[in-house]
Structure formats: structure tokens, C-alpha cells
Amino acid sequence: MIANQSTVIKVSLLIPTLDQSGAEKQLSLLATSLPREEFEVQVIALTRGGPYETLLRQHNIPVTILNKRFKFDPLAYRALKKTIEQQQPDILHTWLFAANSYGRMAVRRMSKTLKTPKVIVSERCVDSWKSNWQHNVDRRLLPQTSLLVGNSQSVVDFYQQQGVPESILRVVPNGIPIPEVTSTESIRKELFQQQDIPDDARLMAFVGRLARQKRIEDLLWTLQLLRQMNEKIILLLIGEGPERAKLEQLAHKYTVTPNVRFLGHRPDVKQLFPLFDLFLLASDFEGQSNSLMEAMSYGIPVIASDIPPNRELVMHGETGFLTSVGDCTGYAQYAERILADPQLATDLGTAARKKMQQDFSIAKMTAGYAALYREVLA
């Protein structure tokens, strides 16, 4: 088919879950922002729903949950194939490894008498964690791939190195809502009372999954170095994950337990962002960090690991600081510099917020995907 102004393009978005994580957030922002006069959107979750299911349904976007139970679940695979055949989308847009694999396998096995959708695969990270068998699956399913889109140039470069032809690679950066900055006095007072934080404390924060790739142990050691200069620095770790118990033990070992607060998952995290004096991200690999972008959108000075995806967001010395992976001394030095210089903190935060407004808006992200949908159908 050829897309034109009178054509409604049917898009099915397929993702493993609708949990409150980065890829799920971007899918939901896209689904709720695509112009309804041109795109008819449905969402399929392989395994389970979650917080974003509620948001999608509030926007009258149909959601199908397939309840996948195993790495390869024949029942879920057949249910997916049947769902695609019933929905008859023009485009199947898949997100993350499980959905990318199931979606392309289902399309490959569709009846020749049915309309076969174009498949756009979204890769969200520099997936150095993938094993050989996973890369082999990706390569074998390339014939079913119309386009592979990364959320940063670093992701696209990684997949080109894995053998994906340059001709089908595209980049569409994440989009981020630019928040209104409002009064936070009551929220600050409540948080400080709940967490027994001194009134004159300075807050550093990390928001995300407590997982090995995030190198949160580096942030704990950074805190230990900073405590030598200022005992009133508090590190907030917001999120859950498999490393939490280990990190709590490390905090005790490093004698920084009085200066760390493990807040767990916080549905009100957007209200907490404006309270942060500084945001830290120490990951050894990323795709394009939603939490880093959110911090920048609130005008918070940031320090991030010097890896390619973060370089696309943080201009060293202008919108934040970059330091080598594992360089706790570097994190501590930049943190001390920012916390000691209010004007520097303001300048970095203002430039970061402006960069998010100019280059990473939801409208720009939505327009990017809409252009790709038109491209594969033309």
C-alpha cells in the first residue's frame, strides 16, 4: 500500500510488558501522541500489563495481554499470531528482544493469503549483555525486518557492528515531557520528615532499576569520598531491582548508611525530581536514559558516565559533566564543584533543560516514528 492523506495507517505496538520502565514509557508516549486522523494504534503486551496499560486505556487505545509464561511459550506465540491476523496491521512495531523475536517469527509464519505487516524493530540499548544465541536469533530474523530503529546513534552503531545492514537502520531519539517547575516546599517537608533527612541536607539522586549495569556501587563510593568534605550530603536511590540487598550491605561496609536512603519504587517520582540538587548516572552501558533526560528536563545539574549514549545528551561543561566509567574520584570532584557553586549549578541546569526542549520533545519523537511508518509503506 502507499500512504497518503486519506489513508489511515494501522499500527500494532508489541512489547513484553507495560511495566513502569523506559521502553514502556516511550511506547506509551508514542501511542498516545500519534495523530488519530492518520494512525489507528493498538498495543499488545506479551507477558503482562502494568501502570502504562491504565494510561493507554484512558486514551481509548485497545490493549491485548497474552500472558506469556516462559522464554518460549508456544501458547503465547500462537495467541500473538492469531492477534496479528485479527488486527491486520499495516505495521507491526516491536520493542525489546522478546517482542522483537516473537513478532518477527509470527509474521514469518503468517498465511500467504493474509496481509503481511511491515515490521519495525525497536532496540533501546547497547545490548552488550546479549549472548551468541540471541544475536543469532536477531540475524536469522533480519529478512522479516523492514527497519531497525535505535533511540540513539550509539545503539544503531552497535547493531551495525552485529551485521544489520546500514540501509535499514534509523535513529529516533527518545521524547521527554518538559515539566512545569512549581513550588516544592510541602513535598520537600514531607519527604524530609518521612526519611529523617536534616533540613540543611543536599540531595544527590539516582532514579532507575537497581541493576548491575547501573554501577550504583560507584555512587556509594562517591558518597563516601564526598562525606569527607560534607557530612550533610544525602544520596537518594529511587527504584527497585536485583542489586538492592547487595547495595544495602555495601552502604554499611562503606559506612555511608546514614547518608543513603533507599526509597524503592515511587509513583510520585516526578514530584521528587525538583528537590534534587544533583543527579548521577554511572552506567557502563545504556541506550538513552529516560531518567537522565527527565533530570535534565527539570533543570537539574547532572554527572554521567562518559559512554556514547550519554554524550548525545550531556555536553561536558555545558549541560552537565561526564566522567569515565568507574571513576568515583571524578564523580566526587564534579559533585563537590557543583554543590559549592550555585551559579554553576543554575547554568548547567538551565542549559540542560533548554537542550531537552529543543532536541528531545515528544512532538519530535512522534514525528520521527510517523515518518518511518510512512517510509516503509511508501
UniProtKB/TrEMBL annotation:
<feature type="domain" description="Glycosyl transferase family 1">
    <location>
        <begin position="188"/>
        <end position="354"/>
    </location>
</feature>
<protein>
    <submittedName>
        <fullName>Glycosyl transferase</fullName>
        <ecNumber>2.4.-.-</ecNumber>
    </submittedName>
</protein>
<keyword id="KW-0808">Transferase</keyword>
<dbReference type="InterPro" id="IPR028098">
    <property type="entry name" value="Glyco_trans_4-like_N"/>
</dbReference>
<dbReference type="GO" id="GO:0016757">
    <property type="term" value="F:glycosyltransferase activity"/>
</dbReference>
<keyword id="KW-0328">Glycosyltransferase</keyword>
<dbReference type="InterPro" id="IPR050194">
    <property type="entry name" value="Glycosyltransferase_grp1"/>
</dbReference>
<feature type="domain" description="Glycosyltransferase subfamily 4-like N-terminal">
    <location>
        <begin position="21"/>
        <end position="177"/>
    </location>
</feature>
<dbReference type="Pfam" id="PF00534">
    <property type="entry name" value="Glycos_transf_1"/>
</dbReference>
<dbReference type="Pfam" id="PF13439">
    <property type="entry name" value="Glyco_transf_4"/>
</dbReference>
<dbReference type="InterPro" id="IPR001296">
    <property type="entry name" value="Glyco_trans_1"/>
</dbReference>
